## 1
Amino acid sequence: MAEAARIPLANAAGRSGLSVNALRWGAMVGGGVLALTGLTRGSKSGLAMAAGGGILAVAGARLRSGPARLVASSTMQVNCSPQQAYEFWSNFENLPLFMRHLDSVSILGNGRSRWVAAGPLGSHIHWESEIVADRKGELISWRSLPGSDMEVDGYVEFRKAPGDRGTFISANIIYSPPGGKTGSVIAKLLGKDPNFLMRQDLRRFKALTEAGEIPTVEGQSHGPRSRLVGAARLLNPDQPIRRDMGIRETLEAQRRLA
Amino acid sequence: MKAVCWMGKEKMSVETVPDPKILNPRDAIVRITSTCICGSDLHLYDGLMPTMEQGDIMGHEFMGEVVEVGGAIKPEVLKAGDRVVVPFTIACGGCFFCKQQLWSCCENSNPNYWMAEKLMGYSPSGLFGYTHMLGGYAGGQAQYARVPFADVGPLKIPQGIPDDQAVFLSDIFPTGYMGAENANIRPGDTVAIWGCGPVGQFAIRSAFMLGAERVIAIDRFDYRLRLAQKAGAETVNYEQVDSVLETLKEMTGNIGPDSCIDAVGMEAHYTGPTYFIDRTKQALRIEPDRPGVLRECIMACRKGGTISMPGVYGGFVDNFPIGQYMNKGITMKTGQTHMMKYMKPLLDRIEKQEIDPSFVVSHRVPIDEAPKMYRMFRDKQDECTKVMLDPWAERSRAA
């Protein structure tokens, strides 16, 4: 599928030097301090703090320098024909319905489109892309144009699943993560594995297609939540971190929503 | 509205919370007229299921009247005013699994699919009031509930059938029935059933419906064994025999039961040192489930027989007798109940008066008494078999 990728996918990993090292030591030392502080408190919230610090320290110790370019890819079986899936995907304006990190896509004509995505810490990332290949019911591929905030190339394939079980949809995004190599490491630290995020997006597409809606519990009733619940919600790897609210407000909002 | 909330291990509390709202086009809001405490809720009460959060609304056995439906629900399917039982499994009706009638394996009803995916490889369907890993849906021990995919799950109930006969179509009657169906019972078979709680009671009756000649029921509480005897079962009080295995061998002429049903699950009680070892490991969180009944089923089952497991397990077990299971050629079937497959046929049996499920009820109390009833049910005090809660009764009414 190299036709979609302007830049070859392989051997993207490289040494990233100081910044990742700094991050790694920061996480290890910071996590260690947090863990010790938590332990000396001897309370429940102290224990939670210690656990969080411990996780951070271990994650930090395991950090390796990130690649300059990431591939997010996943395959999902969906109960529809390849043609139906293709028709939905080929209108890029539909994508934000199920791709949680996309804010909007607008079609500009001539195979071009403008994309806005949620970046780290509430920033917005803009790019324009053009369609490279478009085979009805089979494949669409696109790539970002010069002048974009980041390189984002993508291709999606639709194949008939065996045994009359609908369609296998394989979606792939090749991108240079915001913040470069360090950015990809931070993303990993927050549990934002690119393949995981793509699978989650495809799962939402599957629900939209098969059930007509995406399942949710956001906004339902519940009893009084603890602060711990709000904090745990922030760690949900499926939720983009947006800057619209400060951490404290976010915690409170998560606690109310949960 | 009032709702029973999980506030931590062994901490249930009736809180006043906002009424539920329609969140998706296929939702409905149900005004609950009857709701129950399930034996599986006790695993949450005991804090053994991961991903519960303080403030979660409990309950997955409820029925009531539809008060509002979302925009995608056609009036001929469901409308305000309909009296419905709501199944505890939530299913979309459109995925591969729903089309195969494997409703409790629905792919699209768990918003937190990825959590269960990490633990189990793939996620089962979303459930009401049963951990965030299985959806995080607010449950039905409340005055109102939001019901997703309301055009698939809820079953309309004719006015002539009282709540205490219909409400058990929400879980335990179909669960006991599927437990028996999974046991591959053929006419003339002998079926041994561990656990004479509500699911066990329905499994006993269902086993007879499916042609079993003998049913042997195993428990330690005489009041539950008496209820089993009423349905025609022979009984074994495992605390009063040296060995359940030896007793079953004698009762079956050394052949063993054709089918064994584990209607107990992860918090089993049994005798001997293994019980204390498992109990300790569970308390230390190094063995999530206590598999004493499952081990006994595998030992007791006849060669080439079938084990059915409606009892709920959460994670991993130790000392699973896999060699015994393999060498004896046993088949094991299990799963959360594929509710929508069983509700209508079982409603028909209730309408034909083949069974009156209300026999299982031991306590009817206002919802305010729920926290007390959880403890009573867990500790099997006051001959507690099944607790029905009235969400609208005032506290003053006698328990």
## 2
Amino acid sequence: MSMLEVRNLQVKAEDKDILKGIDLTVNPGEVHAIMGPNGSGKSTLARALSGHPEYVVTGGEVIYEGKDLLAMDPDERAREGVFMAFQYPVEIAGVNNSYFLKAALNAKRKHHGQPELDAMEFMQLVQEKAKLLEIDRSMLTRAVNEGFSGGEKKRNEIFQMALLEPKLAILDETDSGLDIDALKLVANGVNAMRSPERAFIVVTHYQRLLNYIVPDFVHVLSGGKIVKSGGKELAHELEAKGYGWIDAA
Amino acid sequence: MTQLAEKPAAFAMALEKRPTGGARWLEDLRSRGAARFAALGIPTVRDEDWRFTNVSVLNSVEFAPAGPISGAAERLHGFAYTDAPVRLVIVNGRFDTTLSRTKGLPAGVVAGSLAAAITDHADVVQRYFGQLADFTSRSFVALNTAFVQDGAFVYVPDGVVLDTPIHIVFVSGADATTVMAHPRTLIVGGAGSQARIIESYIGTTGESYLNNAVSEVFVGENGSIDHYKVQQESVDAYHIASLHAHTSRSSRFSSHSFTLGGRIVRNDAVVILDGEGGDCTLNGLYLADRERLVDNHTTMDHAKAHCGSHEVYKGILGGTSRAVFNGKIIVRQDAQKTDAKQTNRALLLTDGATINTKPQLEIFADDVKCTHGAAIGQLDEEAIFYLRTRGMTYAEARDMLIHAFAGQVLEGVQIEPLRESLEAELFDQLARDLAEVDGAGQ
């Protein structure tokens, strides 16, 4: 059984039709890259899959592990193992990052009938995962994303992913605004989590990220539809020829 | 400002029966207060300072002077930190010796009944009493002054550092009739002294009364006073109070005001930074729900140079409640190098809740730093969504954001057991309000 089955998905945002019929099948263990020019609907796909209230599904269906994903609230999707790394992580004033991480982790554990982690167990887990992404102490004690640099915010997203261990991770332009060192850190974090049970949807504008997170499939989105799908070599072709080549095709 | 006096018929009878006797200066002060109140009357919405707060209802209630009430000891239960080791209990305006406990205070410290202090510490009381709480333009201060009889008195001599906070608990209640009380508090800190004082106003819901309180605080040179006000009146009560504080050279004063109860609430906080190098923090957190009205008027008066002031007021509004925030900062001509900052934020949980907010800057010096900001709004939907994508339910996400909002003011409470019980009371009340919001939404 596939993990995610997107069939003829149509999505509206701000009264504009953005996605005009997306079909996508994702199996456990696969990494799918979604590429496309600005305004093609890449981020809309990511947000619709995570349940953003401003993205209204007007047609089609999404089956996740045999269940109707679109019928689930955003938090239910999260507890069922869907994770989205935000393109623009939200700053949450007054909420301590480590307190937030613990609440998120325990929300999921409770959902799956596991006991909540105590402070000690939580800190051990945090220390283990923090190393890989070079998350320092101050990032844990500050308010969520508040005053974080662009790179810190993105690292914090992947760090959350590492803690929450989703089944399906959607990365929404996680590479945007990152220098090469930060990009490598983030890519390492993602690669460390690749496994036969876990799938990734990597939304990106640039091929650069895919040098570090090598995808199994590349899909090109244009005008709200997937216009071309292929293997990792498709990303290189796009890099060489530009998106104009797709539009002309 | 014209104040068209509405004939205070409701108070005329009571004023005739106001307390008399005692020291000559006091008797004289009461008479002047009564005369001034007779001229001013209860403020109307035509008065700029009362534009959004209609208290005309007070004219139509017949308030009897508050007397003793049944079960005063039981009435202390269920309120924040009323089990403090040092506490002064004032029941319906009168000091209660049996419920109060002041053991273990350092030598020279006076904490007790104001009525007693008027006789026993006449020199200190006469020197400070009424020096800040100006009744010429403030109706309710005039009314309070007319009725001065008892309340709390705290005196901390020069150089004494009080480790234990002093909790003044004002218990109000009415067995049958609607009553009014006019408690008075005088706090005097000597040079280099330090004290933490809590004023709590508590009342049992269902009981209706007017609590018209006035407090005056003097911070001595190089001294420090932290003042906490926890207002948990009956939700059927009128709470009108003013806090007047005065700082001296290199002294610091902080005020932390928490409003949880009361049907109509008006808090005036007036601080005069009257010595160079002074510092003042004025923080407030208020919860308004149902049809309650909460009005906070603050005045930060920078009279001398090199003083800093920091003000944060936050409100959480539900139901069809209304709130008013008016923050005045005065920087007088001599107050060069003033650094004043004011922030006012309100969270509206329902469409029916409203707030009127106004910063008011009056700056007469040229080398000053003065900033103010106001933000009124709903919870950030993007933040809620972000938290939900991490597995928290809508209610969990919302509560987390509201707690964070309130947290900034709560964190300023430096008395651990007070903060803990206050936090619990506050979040309990919030949970009830939010349950109501959720119920209405379904």
